[in-house]
Amino acid sequence: MTMLNVGRPTRPEGAVGGAGHTSLGGGRGLLQDEPLIFELGGWDKTGVDLPAADQDASDLGDLVRSAPIGLPGLSEPETMRHYVRLSQKNHAIDLALYPLGSCTMKHNPRLNEKMARLAGFADLHPLAPQSTVQGALALMDRLAHWLKTLTGMPAVALSPKAGAHGELCGLLSIRAAHEANGQGHRRTVLVPTSAHGTNPATAAFVGYSVVEIAQTEDGRVDIADLAAKLSPDVAAIMVTNPNTCGLFEREVIEIGRLTHEAGAYFYCDGANFNAIVGRVRPGDLGVDAMHINLHKTFSTPHGGGGPGAGPVVLSAALAPFAPAPWVVAGEDGFELVEEAEGEAAQAFGRMSAFHGQMGMFVRAYAYMLSHGADGLRQVAEDAVLNANYLKARLSSVMSPAFPEGPCMHEALFDDGWLDGTGVTTLDFAKAMIDEGFHPMTMYFPLVVHGAMLIEPTETEPKQELDRFCEALIALAGAAKAGEVDRFKGAPYLAPMRRLDETLAARKPRLTWRSDDKGVSPAPLAAE
Ligand SMILES: *Cc1c(COP(=O)(O)O)cnc(C)c1O
């Protein structure tokens, strides 16, 4: 029997790349192969047992359905097993490190979940009379207070439902402010080359044209290029800080000064706020608007785990243009201001129905209270420490994109170290899956060739970081030793092998028809 590098027996010979041992029915160990729910269900079954109706539902007249709608029928245990089996095929932050750079996949404390499930929060209806939801409004008011205090900004719009939605909110406020100031002719938004794709997409969605700002050798905004591109046509700049290369924009105050001098607003993409929370107040840096991903910085579940929320803090110049609604504290308690009249007349409208993601507000506020101001500061310190630990250990085998100096909360490598091995960033990421690790973010930011962006987050213990480093160092050794097959065919051990992700994104099969049952899927190209 052969042993793997941590001294335990390996899987049976030939498991990687060879025939290995395959089961007869597609299961693996105790993991079952799982069909679609539509393929599982008999149409004649149901998980509930309702008495027959004693009255004809004939009120519907001609609208009565003439054929069943084809919902799958499963008993309760079948339903439970279906979803639990599917969940076993997914990676989750509760299983292991989830080092997706820029995504901040950190542990979601269970205390937050407990708070969000309190009936007084979980069972609220958004149309309940305000006098009956004073506690919820008070929580929104406290959350707003913490967000304003942590960022040093005078106003916050809580309703945006994600980071990208917050960007939209920020740019709509900026557009409304320019229009109110007779500057509606400004049509351009400047965005650095390393920006997250949502930044230029949001600017384009609002109707602005996007002009790129160059990057310096050391991965920061090129100030000379910014100064050259700022003109009376520029409405705003969108800069991420720390940026998507995991680096702090050292010239950020100068960036703000130049922007304001040109009559434009400074939008900061605050998705990386967990790297500086409690240590830097963006309001002190000249920022006019910044979204905060509660699901990143303040640990609410996201990705497959939950909906996220993207409140936007606003400077005094933009505060009058915040979207409705907002909470005000009055003599008779809290009030949610919904109508665009009086003080709210300049609001550009609403970002969404109702007031935002209440469940995320509760989780984020619970996170803030359980950490306290000192704990939040330590969040930033630990996020940066963990990333620098990975950068230092992995630099022995991989090539850091910006070797000079420390990084912030994520460690960025290029693919220079894979030169001549025949292995690409994609191959390497797929081989990580066989080793039991979710890959890092690949090929982003675009300014770094074959980028591998690793964000460990502050909640990973050193032991897990070491396990991760040892897996990557062993894989890097295999790549350099010419074991190309280990990479090209990976993943060998995942429920699915290498999928055609481009085809899946371009031509997704989003429907299933009952006559598909038992028939192998038609080739995608035929649809
Ligand atoms: C995650 C992220 C966004 C988008 O946030 P969503 O909540 O996913 O919409 C924008 N910019 C950066 C830098 C991000 O990391």
UniProtKB/TrEMBL annotation:
Residues 185-303 form the Aminotransferase class V domain. It comes from the Bacteria. Gene3D superfamilies: 6.20.440.10, Aspartate Aminotransferase, domain 1, Type I PLP-dependent aspartate aminotransferase-like (Major domain). Residues 381-478 form the Glycine dehydrogenase C-terminal domain. This is glycine dehydrogenase (aminomethyl-transferring). Residues 15-28 have a biased composition (Gly residues). Residues 1-28 are annotated as: Disordered. Keywords: Oxidoreductase, Pyridoxal phosphate. It comes from Phenylobacterium koreense. It holds the Pfam family GcvP2_C. Signal peptide: none annotated. It is an enzyme of class 1 (oxidoreductase). GO terms for molecular function: glycine dehydrogenase (decarboxylating) activity. The keyword Oxidoreductase applies. The glycine cleavage system catalyzes the degradation of glycine. The P protein binds the alpha-amino group of glycine through its pyridoxal phosphate cofactor; CO(2) is released and the remaining methylamine moiety is then transferred to the lipoamide cofactor of the H protein. Its EC number is 1.4.4.2. It catalyses: N(6)-[(R)-lipoyl]-L-lysyl-[glycine-cleavage complex H protein] + glycine + H(+) = N(6)-[(R)-S(8)-aminomethyldihydrolipoyl]-L-lysyl-[glycine-cleavage complex H protein] + CO2.
